């Protein structure tokens, strides 16, 4: 976007991102270039908007989301399992990691309706609740949502605390999301 639209979006993002410590959570294990681009963009945006510390979750030891050698200084944060498993994540090391960050930004991408993976979407929603319960501000960004979400995802969305915002990509996704939730 250019002109006033990009300025308005930048101000909206600046208000949303705290100027502290941001943990970026990709939508799932590294794979597609679109997911990698969004993950890099979120890390760059958090830095550009003043975050002092930016972490990016990795789901496997060899993942780096193209950030290990990039120009964005980030900390890669390995997690104990994917999909999210409450018992494996509820260990002191993960709790300590969450305590380092003020804001957890989860890239929903194409998966928020369960269309690609009911398990993956449910895992992201459970992870959001876990981070929220540990005192992090949580938000989902860049989400699409189709007209026929899976029943499992609808239940998980309805259980999500209302304070967790979900930023949808487009008007169709917003309409579908409103109808489902």
Low-confidence stretches: 1-5
Shape estimate: globular
Q: How many individual helices?
A: 7
Judged by helices, strands and strand pairing, the structural class is alpha/beta
Rounded to the nearest angstrom, the radius of gyration is 16 Å
**What helical percentage do the residues reach?**
40-55%
Taking all residues together, what is the mean pLDDT? 84
**What distance separates the N and C termini?**
30 Å
Main β-sheet, spatial strand arrangement: 3-2-1-4-5-6
Number of strands: 6
Strand proportion: 15-25%
Largest sheet geometry: 6 strands, parallel
User: What is the ordering of alpha helices and beta strands?
Assistant: HEHEEHHEHEHEH
Give an overview in words.
The chain is globular and about 40 Å long. The chain is 43% helix and 18% strand. The relative contact order is 0.14. Strand 1 (21-25), helix 2 (33-48) and strand 2 (53-58) form a beta-alpha-beta unit. Residues 1-5 have low confidence and may be disordered. A 6-stranded parallel sheet has the order 3-2-1-4-5-6, sandwiched between helices. By secondary structure, the protein is α/β, with parallel strands linked by helices.
